[in-house]
Amino acid sequence: MRINNWTRLEPSSHSEQMTDAYAARVHDPLWFLARQWQTGEFAAEDAGTPVATQIRLETGEITEIDPAEQGGKRIPVDKSSIPLEALIEREPLSAKKARRLA
Fold first, then answer.
1. pTM for this structure?
2. Measured distance CA(75)–CA(81) in Å, rounded
3. Cα–Cα distance between 76 and 62 in angstroms, integer?
4. How far apart are CA 69 and CA 61, in angstroms?
5. pLDDT 10s per residue in the chain (102 long)?
6. Largest Cα span, the chain
7. Is 67 exposed, middle or buried (0-12, 13-18, 19+ CB in 10 A)?
């Protein structure tokens, strides 16, 4: 006979205020320094300076889609009629289902 027992650790606060939790107090700052030394953070040639990044963003409007089941026929997108997700993910209706619904 096998019995699985799971224990879940959850934080519990005895206070209505979350200021202590948001403070993120460190009880042993030397431990953090030791971990940085162990992982080699202090050996960085650039002395740990932040990296500069540049981001370029271009956007465009979707005007038509080309669903696979249409055989290359493009469908214009009308934003006011049906959500784009429903238009893309819908499945074609089989003849049998169409007769049942009629």
1. 0.30
2. 13
3. 9
4. 23
5. 677 777 776 766 677 777 777 777 778 888 888 888 887 777 766 555 556 778 899 998 888 888 766 667 888 888 777 888 887 777 777 788 778 877
6. 75
7. middle
